Inverse folding.
């Protein structure tokens, strides 16, 4: 099972209506959209499957395969920027979306 956790060095806040993540170790800031914020807040030690389930609960009109792609892609992007840690390896069929929805 893959467990995803927020990096303890990352602080999140709302700034002028935008959700901003700051990695205090690197000093880098990232602006995320509403979906990214929902996924970020779900990365609290849950399995990736649980994060997908939470996402589907709040977005019931999404197909499961689309939700999996979005969640996996976003978590992979968060991990690349050291915003989350993943215990285990992601076995995803999803990819990042060209509209930027998975880019932190």
């Amino acid at each position: 099972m893959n467990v995803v956790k927020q990096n303890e060095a990352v602080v999140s806040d709302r700034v002028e209506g935008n959700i901003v993540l700051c990695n205090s170790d690197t000093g880098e800031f990232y602006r995320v959209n509403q979906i990214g914020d929902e996924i970020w807040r779900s990365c609290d030690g849950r399995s990736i499957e649980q994060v997908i389930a939470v996402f589907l609960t709040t977005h019931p009109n999404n197909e499961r395969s689309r939700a999996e792609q979005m969640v996996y892609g976003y978590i992979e992007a968060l991990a690349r920027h050291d915003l989350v840690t993943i215990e285990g390896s992601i076995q995803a069929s999803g990819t990042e979306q060209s509209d930027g929805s998975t880019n932190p």
In short: Strands lie at 3-6, 10-15, 18-23, 28-32, 44-47, 84-87.
